[in-house]
Amino acid sequence: MRILYLGDVMGRAGRRAIAEGLGPLKQRLGVDFTIVNGENASGGMGLTGAHARLILEAGADCVTLGDHAFDQKEMLSFIETEPRIIRPLNFSKAAPGRGARVFEATRGRKVLVAQILGQVFMKRPFDDPFSAIEAVLKSHPLGGLVQASVVDIHAEATSEKMAVGHFCDGRASLVVGTHTHVPTADTMILSRGTGYQSDAGMCGDYDSVIGMDKAEPLRRFLTGMASERFTPAEGPATLCGVLVTTDDRTGKAVEIQPVREGGRLIASPA
Amino acid sequence: MRILYLGDVMGRAGRRAIAEGLGPLKQRLGVDFTIVNGENASGGMGLTGAHARLILEAGADCVTLGDHAFDQKEMLSFIETEPRIIRPLNFSKAAPGRGARVFEATRGRKVLVAQILGQVFMKRPFDDPFSAIEAVLKSHPLGGLVQASVVDIHAEATSEKMAVGHFCDGRASLVVGTHTHVPTADTMILSRGTGYQSDAGMCGDYDSVIGMDKAEPLRRFLTGMASERFTPAEGPATLCGVLVTTDDRTGKAVEIQPVREGGRLIASPA
Amino acid sequence: MRILYLGDVMGRAGRRAIAEGLGPLKQRLGVDFTIVNGENASGGMGLTGAHARLILEAGADCVTLGDHAFDQKEMLSFIETEPRIIRPLNFSKAAPGRGARVFEATRGRKVLVAQILGQVFMKRPFDDPFSAIEAVLKSHPLGGLVQASVVDIHAEATSEKMAVGHFCDGRASLVVGTHTHVPTADTMILSRGTGYQSDAGMCGDYDSVIGMDKAEPLRRFLTGMASERFTPAEGPATLCGVLVTTDDRTGKAVEIQPVREGGRLIASPA
Amino acid sequence: MRILYLGDVMGRAGRRAIAEGLGPLKQRLGVDFTIVNGENASGGMGLTGAHARLILEAGADCVTLGDHAFDQKEMLSFIETEPRIIRPLNFSKAAPGRGARVFEATRGRKVLVAQILGQVFMKRPFDDPFSAIEAVLKSHPLGGLVQASVVDIHAEATSEKMAVGHFCDGRASLVVGTHTHVPTADTMILSRGTGYQSDAGMCGDYDSVIGMDKAEPLRRFLTGMASERFTPAEGPATLCGVLVTTDDRTGKAVEIQPVREGGRLIASPA
Ligand SMILES: [Fe+2]
Ligand SMILES: [Fe+2]
Ligand SMILES: [Fe+2]
Ligand SMILES: [Fe+2]
Ligand SMILES: [Fe+2]
Ligand SMILES: [Fe+2]
Ligand SMILES: [Fe+2]
Ligand SMILES: [Fe+2]
Fold it and tell me: Is DNA repair included in the keywords of this UniProt record (chains A, B, C, D) (predicted)?
């Protein structure tokens, strides 16, 4: 099965690239199941119901969130009405929605998607992601009721992300990081068969500071003071992520490749 | 001019890859000037004089350090005897050594190398890197006494690194990040001509947690307690970094490409 | 009932003050139940079995720990043999020992003691303390099986400590902070009857940097580099904490006063 | 000379206590020079010109700020017109205003006031406070052109505050902390004659979470999400700080006592 994971959609530039580019990309890559991180799709902060629908209609089978999950307050109720949206398992005990769910891919195959938040260098504290993902992986063994499983580790620190990768190795089809908004070039298959990339990168304009228009971030770094609000950069976006091919019987990764398309970054090798 | 920058050399695996691989790599890529980050070459923590010599003899023209600059106490005196080693400009007012220096590349061309530490998500506090690098860039304009300049932003946060990139854009030949030990895939030339990559990645074994043997980092994440010391992973290392080609007249980047060679990562396109 | 809580015992100076001073202090104050924080009693880092025994023999009915709970590895097994030692409820799912327990005070009265770790500004991440203490307080209502209850919030941030105070207000007899090693002067009874002080302060030598000999902390602040190990300051210690008088029927605080005795700090009013 | 330092004035409750209580308090204590921290006087966030005037008219000779110095944008220009307002020395190189100044106390005596920001556990990074205060103390020796000097260390960590105290010991009349909004009970004279208290505490309503109405902070701790804005608590405020008596000839502290007056905290001993 071919699973496409695209990272944090960043504002209007990211949404446009998804709306226009996701369909053709899936076609060209022969994708069976698509996951898109949407935590920054609305003005760079959170996800509205309308923008969630846009991403789903563009071809995502599942939308994940992150630390910005409920920055748009309407998501607090919308997530209860839309089972294709996942928020981190360890967001907060009081959060609505779910952190893991089994989805259906092409030809009825089952895919588990789960998201966890890191604890290192995050602006707010979250509970232990390792025990949270342990419980989910234990109850959804590969080669049992699910043919594949994907873990989104939404985190800052490369050490924590690599540790999650090894922790899930052999028990998930893909562990992919999000949150830093920069794709990493460490795409690999870990020793027990799990596909891995430390960060998917964002779907956004890379002539920016992590997707935001450069002016205000630079002012804040230089003066230590906020002058204006952050607004997403509006130049052409790069769709960024990873494509993993799994063995339906074992659930393990047999091939993995980075995906970078459009915008300013060097396109991934065809 | 062709400038090669290789990221954090991690322990014995990284040193071996440098000793055996740097010469042939320079040859194949036609490199005029080589910079290697050495802050983790000795047991994963700091750099001894002997290991600094090893890296220089392998072909580095300049060795940069980082937050681990003086983890090996002998570097406090060794750095005063070896002008080819650079420590961060904003390490601490009490630190020995220098944070920027002009080097000679092939055919007598001059290259400025400077290193700064980020302030965001770092384990210790450092002074403002923006004003530190501003002063150095102002006194070393491209196309003046130097034909090229390289800024190593040793930092965790992608936002801070991209902000440094844009801050130096048009004034440096290359801004390259280090410290996360994972290469990023955002290799690009910024709008005013500076080559950029958020992180060079490490020269180390990627079957690890940022270069360290997996067992102890995993135990610490799972139990919250240290059991043993961290030790570098010993598997085959990947040499990771970036190659920038600059215009000797303007000092700007005309071409940039990622470098990944050996070990577990997908090799960079030839 | 009169409950004495003394803060973090710091090294030899703190142990000596406890060994010599706790007995007479209890006598003079007419104490029914005594809790002492021991997380720094052994060289400033953790607690050995021998030092735990010393504190218990000096008159503590219960010893609490903190983020340094298992810095002395022997505590990993010792805590299983000594039920009078409590470690934080939210230390790590893998930690031995317990985070709350019911003790017996004079005349057979029951006292619940529980400890939680804060999440804000701590060097390591811990799980949510609010839901952890909620569960314990719910199953141990005041005026039910326990005549009094004490919550030790081991944390850095005053905001988090005050929030824990209000969260437990009316449901615990005393909420007292530890960890900063400086006593606060905000001793009060909250609006629904819980005694509160943001930090008990340490039992240690205040001519120091939070109990450590001044020289090395100052060197590290000035140079950004470690030169030597930290060692506890050896001057005369101040016993620091709080004394709360509770109503045995309601479990609420009827009186509260700071305790400071010996060493360099101004003694608390008799 | 008798110098009164009062900590962070918190919103309307704090302003009212200053307006009504500072005059009588100065009278009763026989104060020669008064410093008030104003960084939270306006809605809990920053200081407007009008509120600065209110504090000065109530009897402050000098108003210090903190990390919230310019939360009210008008302070960016107001500070240039009002030399009695001091912002931290190490706020940012781009900040307007000054971080240290010599003031005149009763009978023409000179008092240096300087403020520095800590680096540990602060939400934003700041430059090294030790070298910043070193320069100021060196150029303003006690017993020279100034009869007294006061250093406000606006910081979170008790370790950093105590280190600043010892660093300035014998060179300043008083080192007093601000920022945590909780008074500490470690009022003392350090070994070379500098008066010290780790935190002055706030001038605000202590039935709160560091001066803010309890409801929203509690919601955020419990749910991990913001629901509303923070608003200052409106109950009766406690004026909190410290009174130091100095020797005009040596500039050293000869006596020091905490000040707590009104509101919910136990009043300081007369
Ligand atoms: Fe995020
Ligand atoms: Fe994001
Ligand atoms: Fe580093
Ligand atoms: Fe490194
Ligand atoms: Fe602690
Ligand atoms: Fe402690
Ligand atoms: Fe502050
Ligand atoms: Fe404040």
Answer: no
